[in-house]
């Protein structure tokens, strides 16, 4: 009996040992332009197959599934495989990670496979099937820059064009690396449909497609690099073969093209003639200060609109602030932007609207305001000054009415204006009935009688809650920081359903936070300077890194596909980062 049990155990153990699941590759060393075949093979039927992520590769074919089963001399054999064709995206050692599958209720995984990717190699070609033309010579990606030596905050345009031969067909295109435009404010110009037109390249006629248009405003002077745009193209090339009807046969191919990096030398704005109140405006502008009205009645308010219109870096400078008398109450402005960004650069109007409420009767001057900008046409600074605005409050208390004067004896007396010293005393009176209901037993009597019994518990509960809140120092700090963060991000929250406007507002909110806390202008902001100042103010390196990464990703996220959930996550991340920085600095 023991002998049979032993043989049974050996048979069961051998049955489980027969299950195999492995990854096989067509080669372990290949060129950057070669394709790799990967087969995930198993000798038993499995479920829930999960391929690896194929980091460092792009899947150009597959998955294709093959199943085979045979019976030989009463024994069955089973094979199942999943096949992929991969194209490497980088040089060096790349690892194909584990795939997994469930067989007989147990999870099996393949071993990782190490692949060595070298430089592109020359592929052997069938002379009868070789393309008539070389894709290397017949297709070019070019970045055309409008100006290589602009001033700080002067707009330049980058237009990416693809030139290709008439004999080449392009079936698909994918962007590999999106330029981040470090040290530039950027705005992508939407191209609704790609259109191929006739053109010339190096003196030869060809087809040309405009792939991308970007407007850039350099934010620092010196040599700035525009990162290259790289793309993968799927091509159709004619061969030397012909079909039965004499038509030229084509072959499928792929090519990786790059526009190459561009270096822009940015000139700083001249120091000669630069006013002290210059806020960084560059372009051609008009400046206007407009009150909604100048004659007010007691208690009325007026709206003062400070507006700059024209062409230039409208989103990258601050407007001057009006100066009003101390007896006039002025509220924080409401900022409004009506700005378009075509290929020629920003144009439109930005404005701040202030609500102003005078407290007393009289005349109140709003001093002239000056706005300075750098005129690119003449290369000089120009200043526009608004006229003085006189606000006339027609009625209401005067500034001296109700004021208390103190004499030498220390007795306080009401100060009386000169016009009221000998006013006529009216002698005629009006008699009214004094009859009224008894207070005792009235509704008001019982309300006042029982009100303390209702109010005292409410006061006790409110006091306990206030003491608990006051004692929570850490919680108060967090709540204060969150309110500040949401204040800066209020505009971004309004645009949360519009992806592009949301990320524009989010990027501006991050910049406004830095302006308020670090006292630096947008034109002075660079990754290194922001990092240096934040670290010097005891900000944590992890928080600073998260802040920099979020601002850099705003540009990319504006044009990348994004769900509403991802947009909400970015908003919550911005609130958390600004709150942390507020607490740390």
Automatic annotation (TrEMBL):
The chain crosses the membrane at residues 439-460. Residues 1-17 form the signal peptide. InterPro entries: BatD. Keywords: Membrane, Signal, Transmembrane, Transmembrane helix. This is Oxygen tolerance. It comes from Flavobacterium noncentrifugens.
